[in-house]
Amino acid sequence: MSNDVHYSAETDSNDLQRHAATEPQRILRMHAVVDRVGLSRSSIYARQRSGDFPRAVSIGPRAVGYLEREVEAWIKRACHHREAARP
User: Exposed, middle or buried, 73 (CB in 10 Å: 0-12/13-18/19+)?
Assistant: First the structure.
């Protein structure tokens, strides 16, 4: 899959620092992430394991979520990657 978008914690760190003072932190549950990015749960888990998607954060003993800013940064990179791949 040459069109994969690679997740970069360093890039996200920069994005998070830029927006930290102005945006409240939100945590998205898996169903919201699936709706937002258009990938299946298994695809999200596979990309997360390979480092191509933000890691989940624990929000309880049996619950995890994803930081909205990190998911949005991943979507931005996917769009940027698409634009860069155009002839």
Answer: buried
Q: What is the pTM of this model?
A: 0.69
DSSP state, residue 6: P
Could you give the 3-state DSSP secondary structure of residue 35?
Answer: helix
Give the DSSP H or E segment for 63: strand 63-67
**Alpha-carbon gap, residue 84 to 37, rounded angstroms:** 19
Flag whether 2 is in a domain: no
Question: Which residue range is the domain that position 23 belongs to?
Answer: 9-85
pLDDT per residue as tens digits for the range 22-72: 677 899 999 999 999 999 999 999 999 999 999 999 999 999 999 999 999
DSSP 3: T
